[in-house]
Amino acid sequence: MKKQFLDSGKIVGTHGIRGEVRIEPWCDSPEFLCAFPVLYLGANGENPIEVKSRPHKNITLAKIKGVDTIEEAEKYRGKIVYINRDDIRLEEGVHFVQDLIGLEIRDADSGMVYGTLTDVLRTGANDVYEITDGDGKKYLAPVIEEVVTEINVDGGYVLLRPMKGIFDDAD
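The structure assignment produced for this chain is given below.
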């Protein structure tokens, strides 16, 4: 089931003396997180906070409305920030990683189940899916057209046409 509010970062500290906070983004980039004028401090959308954000190196700096001193900002340290999925429109074929975790991995031709998608690794050239089978053994599959033939988040599965060596331990 898709979560309405997605954990997207953690407040890791303050910035300056005027109440700004530093957020470590757990999303694609600091710029992505800056697109949201409202963040939430609760996983169910409770405690909305209005923010004005800007990217700074690999973090997001956010000024929370009503927080004007370093002492007030310090109270937010360690808190997880959430975004509302309704506040963003993803391009066709793009998915939130949180929606992919837990999907069943099936063979595109035979329907055989290989396991469950347990992580998405960012390698630069393409993402890599970590797949864990029923015995806990982990496999890695590149997310490229030749391998991943279908992603069906609502249906709960990903179809793969594995390359030689992914599951058969061949070179």
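Interim note for the steering committee: DSSP finds three helices and twelve strands in the chain. The longest helix spans residues 30-34.
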